[in-house]
Design goal:
By secondary structure, the chain is an alpha+beta fold. It has seven helices and nine strands. A four-stranded antiparallel β-sheet has the order 7-8-6-9. It has a three-stranded mixed β-sheet with strand order 3-4-5. α3 crosses α4 and α5 crosses α6.
């Protein structure tokens, strides 16, 4: 859930803050966006490009902030954060309380990546199998059943369509996946690659995350 990813370390701006102050905070925290608040009310999000349009001593209230302003509620799912941040090319995303609409903090790209690692079980030990099949043959229930019949459980499944085929990455809760592989092959799944180290899986998921971010931003 979004509430698990909120950071209050990056300061929000108030309308009277100058462009120079905003750019200094962005530089200090290595972000290109900052939320603007009045008390606990979220007013909008400004980027470094917005601030370059005003002089250093002008207040950021002079920056254009077209509606609708991007944000998520603290009750939303991390996938919604991923969609909004990637489609708007944001370095962070403000979070608003679903209970009273007050500003709570932000989610940064680093926090989003860590959250995605948890969702995809990247931080859990186990083996990884990349398999390929047709969309008609793809069955998550069947894959899980094959794993469970070999005393293994599927911790996460990542899928994408490529040239009419389904490319599937499954994370198991054990490193010895040989029996699972044999079972999958009996059901017509082609084994593309096998990983037995968590480092390789983390790298794989980072690659998949980057690819997804690029896809959603098209």
């Amino acid at each position: 859930m979004v509430s698990d990813l909120i950071s209050t370390n990056i300061p929000a701006l108030i309308p009277s803050d100058t462009g120079a102050k905003a750019l200094q905070i962005m530089d200090d925290f290595r972000v290109s966006h900052l939320p603007v608040v009045s008390g606990t009310e979220y007013l909008g999000l400004v980027s470094d490009n917005d601030i370059y349009g005003i002089s250093d001593d002008e207040p950021i209230s002079q920056c254009p902030m077209p509606a609708p302003q991007p944000y998520v509620f603290d009750t939303q799912h991390i996938f919604e954060v991923l969609t909004i941040m990637s489609s708007n090319k944001l370095s962070l995303l403000p979070v608003i309380s679903a209970q009273n609409n007050s500003y709570l903090g932000v989610i940064t790209e680093t926090q989003l990546l860590r959250g995605m690692a948890q969702v995809t079980a990247a931080n859990m030990p186990g083996g990884i199998i990349e398999i390929v099949t047709t969309p008609e043959n793809y069955s998550p229930a069947q894959i899980a059943a094959v794993a469970e019949s070999n005393d293994m459980k599927i911790m996460s499944i990542y899928t994408r369509t490529d040239a009419g085929n389904m490319n599937i990455v499954i994370k198991c809760n054990g490193h010895d996946t040989s029996a699972v592989i044999q079972g999958l092959e009996r059901y017509g799944y082609r084994i593309k690659q096998v990983y037995e180290g968590d480092r390789k899986y983390t790298e794989l998921m980072e690659d998949r995350y980057s690819a997804l971010m690029k896809y959603l931003s098209v």
